[in-house]
């Protein structure tokens, strides 16, 4: 947890969400490398002569923040990288933001997750100009988020402490990990795919779909069965979700 002080050291941060506040401000959810997700009150509205580019979603800036009772305030900020996403890429980025806003508690430090988030955004930006497959970046982000939340089952061994075997079939339980038999509420998965996931090895199309379905299984209880709005819109616009 973050130690509350009058001011914070400079940190990289990315805007997850913002909404207008009164006549001349924004309430902002900022994901920072050193301090996790924090609430921010930004004063001043954008105008053509002085645009507030650092408040655009998916933009990385270098922030110097002051701690208030309910919100943090900007002492200074320098724009680092602005990412102007569109199409499928922006809806996929909304998906990442929605997971962070719904699941990551405020002030929980998660520097590794921040780096995976940045990598995913960079991959999405590149994918708009190339045929880069962004799926591995999404899965790595999801896996790290589960790890940060302390709910990622042990995928290195089964419930009896035996190492995963490639040719064996397992049944993944959100609460108990890898089981040898099918029980209600478990997800079937082969050992070969588990080992590839752990090694971050290339996956076939079928394996990639199975990996995606496994992650959805693990996130479902955290989301309490409620659908993500970003996924709903992806399905409406493009016929499928990430």
From TrEMBL:
Pfam families: RecO_C, RecO_N
Family matches, as InterPro entries: ARFGAP/RecO, DNA_rep/recomb_RecO_N, NA-bd_OB-fold, RecO, RecO_C
SUPFAM superfamilies, sorted: ArfGap/RecO-like zinc finger (SSF57863), Nucleic acid-binding proteins (SSF50249)
GO cellular component: a single term: bacterial nucleoid
Keyword DNA damage in record: yes
Keyword annotations of the record: DNA damage, DNA recombination, DNA repair
Annotated transmembrane regions: none
Biological process according to GO: DNA recombination; double-strand break repair
DNA replication/recombination mediator RecO N-terminal domain residues: 10-82
Cited function: Involved in DNA repair and RecF pathway recombination.
Similarity comment: family membership: Belongs to the RecO family.
Protein known as: DNA repair protein RecO
Organism of this sequence: Ignatzschineria ureiclastica
């Amino acid at each position: 947890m973050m130690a509350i002080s009058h001011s914070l050291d400079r940190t990289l941060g990315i805007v997850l969400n913002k909404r207008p506040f009164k006549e001349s401000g924004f309430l902002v959810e900022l994901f920072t490398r050193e301090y996790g997700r924090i609430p921010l009150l930004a004063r001043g509205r954008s105008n053509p002569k002085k645009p507030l580019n650092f408040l655009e979603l998916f933009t990385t800036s270098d922030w110097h923040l002051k701690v208030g009772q309910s919100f943090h305030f900007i002492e200074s900020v320098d724009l680092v990288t602005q990412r102007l996403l569109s199409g499928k890429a922006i809806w996929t980025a909304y998906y990442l933001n929605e997971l962070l806003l719904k699941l990551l508690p405020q002030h929980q430090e998660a520097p590794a997750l921040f780096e995976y988030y940045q990598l995913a955004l960079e991959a999405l930006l590149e994918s708009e100009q190339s045929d880069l497959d962004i799926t591995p970046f999404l899965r790595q982000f999801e896996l790290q988020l589960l790890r940060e939340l302390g709910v990622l089952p042990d995928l290195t061994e089964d419930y009896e402490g035996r190492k995963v075997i490639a040719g064996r079939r397992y049944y993944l339980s959100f609460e108990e990990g890898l089981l040898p038999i099918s029980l209600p509420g478990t997800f079937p998965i082969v050992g070969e795919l588990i080992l590839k996931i752990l090694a971050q090895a290339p996956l076939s199309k079928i394996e990639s779909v199975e990996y995606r379905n496994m992650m959805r299984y693990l996130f479902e209880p955290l989301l309490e069965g409620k659908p993500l709005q970003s996924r709903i819109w992806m399905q409406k616009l493009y016929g499928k979700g990430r």
